[in-house]
Amino acid sequence: MYIVLLILxxxxxxxxxxxxxxxxxxxxxxxxxKLMRLRVAAQAVAxxxxxxxxxxxx
Length: 58
Prior knowledge:
Blueprint: H1 2-24, H2 29-56
Helix pairs in contact: 1-2
């Protein structure tokens, strides 16, 4: 389960870095917005995974 949580956190970080890179390079605002929305969704999944891990590890 630890590996799944690490993968989820890494996905969130990669999406964040890609979105920030796009903004820093002056890329499309639409693309940055979509990436940030995708990051929020991925972050929600990661948080749910963490809560589930804590809940079921008791």
